[in-house]
C-alpha cells in the first residue's frame, strides 16, 4: 500500500477542494510513492506523536490539524513545530493533514459532535458557496445516451437524494472544419448541420477533472463544445457547522451538564441562560465565533463551539446560549472517525488510533 493510495481514499471522504483557503491541508512531509508500513491517526502531530509512530512502526501519520500551518523559513529544532517535522523527516514518516476539508464534510467533524449529542434532522449551518458546477454540452442524437451515461458514471447528475439527473434539449448544431480538421461527421471546408442533443448536468466541483475526462473520452467529435459554470445554489452537503434537533427538549442546565460529561470538558464557559428549554442545537468544532450570527439566524437555542473571546459572549443578545466546550474537546472524536473510516477501507492493514495526549490546555 502506497501513501498516495491512502490519500486517494481520504480525499474521497473529505476532498481537499473544500478546505478553506487559509488552510494547509494535504501531504506535508514524505513521498506519495512511499510504501506504508502502518497508519497512526491523531489530532495533532507533536514530537511525542512522531515517537509513538516510530514505536508502533507507522510511517504515515494522518492528522486533523496541520503541524505546518504558516511558512517555515528554517528547520533548526528551535520550536515544537520544527522538532516534530525534523523527527518525521529523519525517520521517513509521512504526515497528511485533513483539517477544514473534514470540517466542511457532511459526515465530518460536526456530524460527530451531533452524533455524540444524539441530534437528529441534521443540516449544514453555513453552506460553502461555489461548490456546485454545471456542465452543458452538445452531442449527436445517436451518441447522446452514451455521453450522458459516461457523465453519470463519473459523478455528474446527482442532486440531493437523486442521481442520473440531467436536462436534454433537441436542436440543430452546425460546424465547418478548416483544412487542418478531421471531422467525424461531414466534410472539411463544408458547413454541416447535425441533429444534436444539448445535455445539462450539475456536479460537485472536486469532480470537474473526472467529468471532463469522461466527456472527452466518450464524445465522438474531434472538438467538443461544452460550457462549465459555477452555480450560486447553496450546497446542503458541504460547509461549516451543523444544526440538529434533540429528540426531547431539555432544561438548559441539564443539557449543559450532559455536554460537559459527553466531551469531558474541564469547564464550560457560557453566556447567560435564558430560562427556556433546549431543542435546536447548533455546533461547530474548533474556533467558531464567526458563526454566531448564523446560529442565531438558524433559530438555535444553543451554539456549542470553542475559543470564544470575552466580547463574543455579548453577541448572544439574549437570543441563544453560547457554550464554549474547549477546542480539543470539541474535535476529539475526529480521531475515531478517521480511524474507523480507514479500517473499513483497509481492513487488512495496520491503522492505529494514537493514545498520545495532545491537548495543551489543562484545568485546575
UniProtKB/TrEMBL annotation:
Keyword Disulfide bond applies: no
GO cellular component: cytoplasm
Residues that span the membrane, as ranges: none
Residues that coordinate or bind a divalent metal cation: 65, 103, 327, 331
Keyword Metal-binding: yes
InterPro entries: DUF34/NIF3, DUF34/NIF3_bac, DUF34/NIF3_sf, N-reg_PII/ATP_PRibTrfase_C
Ranges in a coiled coil: none
Family: Belongs to the GTP cyclohydrolase I type 2/NIF3 family.
Protein name: GTP cyclohydrolase 1 type 2 homolog
